[in-house]
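Section 3.1: Structural characterization of target chains.
Under the original work plan, the team committed to producing a structural model for every single-chain target entering the pipeline before any wet-lab resources were allocated. The record below documents one such target. The sequence was received from the expression subgroup and is listed exactly as submitted; it comprises 166 residues.
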Amino acid sequence: MGRVEDRLEPGERVIFRTGLHPMTFSGAVSMAVFVALVVVLLIRHNDLPQATEVEIAVVGALVVALGFVPGLLRWRRTAFLVTERRLLVTSGTFRRHGTTASLAPNVIEQEGGVAGRMLDHGTVTVVGDDGEPLGVSHVARARELVEAVRTQARRASSGRRGSATP
């Protein structure tokens, strides 16, 4: 599955776009701090040869770098696009998952808690047209995404009602 933009129909216009918040990396940062603490304590409190200290530091740096890989992949591969007609979502770390949802006010939910409100991110659950829910955490601008979907759903439903009248 390619980029989410490749799934747009001809003439379909993107109204709102968002991805993941930098909070996606909170787990990797926590792990990096822990690994750095272990490396410092190992080197500081043991009488080790210089070569061994360098090896410990290099292995710690590699562990930290590898800890960031899943978050980076997920951050680059997750996107939410609101168009005039639908919501397109792709997410995933190693394998991409995508869904398309018709614009309806009840299709999308957002929860973020206190930290989410302060940092403007949250968990978004989208029920796709296939009926399968797709939950994505640490979505940037989650409130704006929910509002964009609801606003576009109101516009689309009022446009359909207006065109049905003679």
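The mean pLDDT is 82.
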